[in-house]
Amino acid sequence: MPIQPDPFQNNLLYSSLTELFGDFDDTVLSTITPLLEGIEIQGGDCLFRQDDPGDSLYFVMSGRLQALVTEGGGEFRKIGEIIRGETVGETALITGDPRNASIFALRDSSLVRLSKKAFEEVIAHHPAVALNMAKRIIYRLKNTPLPGKSHKKPVTICLLALHSTIDLAGMARNLNELLRSKGSVYLMSGDRMNEFSDQANERPDREADPAPFRTLSRWLDHLESQYEFLLLVADPPEPTGLLTEWSQFCLHQADDIVQFADAQQASDLTPPEIQLHHKGLITGQVETLVLVHQADTLIPRQTAGWLSKRPRIRAHYHIRAGSDRDLARLSRILSNTAIGLVLAGGGARGFAHVGVLKALQEHGIPVDFVGGTSVGGLIASAVSFDQPAEIVRKHARKGAFFNPTKDYNWLPMISLIRGQRMERMIRDTVTEFLNDHEPDLEDSWLTLFVVSSNYTQARAEVHTRGSLVKYLKATTAIPGVFPPVIDGDDFLIDGGTFNNFPADVMRQMPVGRIIGIDLVVEKSRKLTISSIPGPAKLLRDRFRPKKLRKFRLPSLASIILNSTLLYSSSQRSQIRQYVDLYFNPDVSRFGLMEWSAFDKIVQKGYEHAMIVLKSRSADEQAMFRGEPSEER
């Protein structure tokens, strides 16, 4: 059908046409406009399939689409999303190639179609349009953002309570206020919908119009062009546990469905969850589980039980009832402005992370996601418990002075060190933090990941679920120094072998900015010898005072550890591009296993971080604190 005049979408369409075809005059516009066709597609429906002919391009006016490619086994893999104001299918229109992906609607969507025949008619009258289009496509391909970032900010968010004990109305009001610092927000509940329908006198006639709430759906399309966020608050479940018609509409129209559950309740599926899946109300949208805990909860427990029964959940988060900080964190996550903290490996030098953490907290910079490798993973786990830096320092210091490398293996068949002290240090530190409780990775307040290397499969492993102690052992299991960790049929070793600074992993999380703490030693070593001396000479030299030593050679432990980092080091310049705020304290004078230098290393990290932060402008610091800019 021809496109209908719509004051809310005409500007968006004109902007989309200009973005693709370049600036053009009214003559070109008068040629294109009659050839455009408006179409509507319901959530879950397919627009076109992979390998179909590339016979049209589409402008997205409202809603959200997803692009899927078919793998060798016939399974779909998501490669991206297309949102309001973007186009799909333009490259195939020029090349004539088949579609390289299938496009499905995540929710009810309005599109504008330009067929290949219509496009050829346009360029027959205005050849410059084709040239402009080709230039812009090439420009976009050359300036494609760095790979790995797949999350797009949701526009329409449905808030759904799974239990009657959840104060959803209160949380919605608070989220509404918090999101206003990120952009314009429109909050709508079932009551407000009734007010709108009464004022407009346009209640949908369900008998005449089989698509319920059609008028409201179009009105939401208009709101999406005016607001950056729409918060749709579902009704409380009816006494029977069924979802109201308004709630069903919210679920069907949302980009992101945020389900709030009372963590004190049993983890069984609730009636609303059973209904929304059985009735097909979910058509591929992001499903997020928010577990609401009592205000005095020290650490969440038994999260695995909730997640195992909900395999479709994309992400889960923990908040405490009445906690403004936790709700502020959730608002940053929902708006894709969350802060991710990445901590590199580096032996005892990694204690510098604690000093940087202290500086970040003093500057009011929050952390929402945290991950790391090796010692970076150890410190990341402490950060994920959401404690002040001084508490993290206290427990980390106790672990350092325990010295986890003292249990030498006198018959080193697999490793130089037995690793029992390392496991004891990890377990004791965690349980002292958490009053004798040993959590899983998914139980942390802040979303946590640690990286290990799979010796058996020759690949990096990113751990987000499972035993925290086990995977902290794995990420610190330096090959040859500590024994590998057995995980099923695989051996896991120190994550630094593949990825010692996992900023690329953090980039795949729904974060807006990444803070990275690296431990790169950038000083080059000057050698005064041409061959390695014999062991007797080396031993005598070691007994001399440090300043009088003749041979400036790395220790055996340093050679083993640094050898495992060679591949990671070669990738560092590329991975560093993902980091928005970069710290690299100079801790080169400290040994990789110099545990007794804990206080000095922490202080070095703190001093470096303060210098870096003071060099940033007030606006930049406010940006990392999540404060609104002066422009807003």
Write the layout of secondary structure elements.
Blueprint: H1 7-21, H2 26-32, E1 37-41, E2 46-48, E3 56-62, E4 64-70, E5 76-83, E6 87-88, H3 90-95, E7 102-105, E8 109-115, H4 116-125, H5 128-142, E9 156-161, H6 168-179, E10 185-189, H7 190-200, H8 214-224, E11 229-233, H9 245-253, E12 256-262, H10 271-278, E13 286-293, H11 303-308, E14 315-320, H12 324-334, E15 339-343, H13 352-362, E16 369-373, H14 375-384, H15 389-402, H16 420-433, E17 447-454, E18 459-463, H17 468-475, E19 485-487, E20 490-494, H18 503-507, E21 513-517, H19 535-542, H20 556-564, H21 566-570, H22 572-576, E22 581-583, H23 598-614, H24 618-625
Parallel strand pairs: 9-11, 9-12, 10-11, 12-13, 13-14, 15-16, 15-21, 16-17, 21-22
Antiparallel strand pairs: 1-8, 2-7, 3-6, 3-8, 4-5, 4-7, 17-18, 17-20, 19-20
Helix pairs in contact: 6-12, 13-15, 13-23, 15-16, 16-17
Q: What does this protein structure show overall?
A:
With 632 residues, the chain is an alpha/beta fold. It has three domains: 7-143, Jelly Rolls; 156-198 and 213-335, Rossmann fold (3-Layer(aba) Sandwich); 341-522 and 583-625, Cytosolic phospholipase A2 catalytic domain (3-Layer(aba) Sandwich). 37% of the residues lie in helices and 19% in strands. It has 24 helices and 22 strands. The longest helix has 17 residues, at 598-614. Mean pLDDT is 86; it is low at 199-212.
Whole-number total of structural domains: 3
Please report the number of helical segments.
24
Low-confidence stretches: 199-212
Q: Report how far apart the termini are.
A: 40 Å
CATH architecture type of the largest domain: 3-Layer(aba) Sandwich
Fraction of residues in helix: 25-40%
CATH superfamily descriptor of the largest domain:
Cytosolic phospholipase A2 catalytic domain
Gyration radius over CA: 28 Å
- Tell me the fraction of residues in β-strands, as a range: 15-25%
Tally of DSSP β-strands: 22
**Which fold name fills CATH's third level, the topology of the largest domain?**
Cytosolic phospholipase A2 catalytic domain
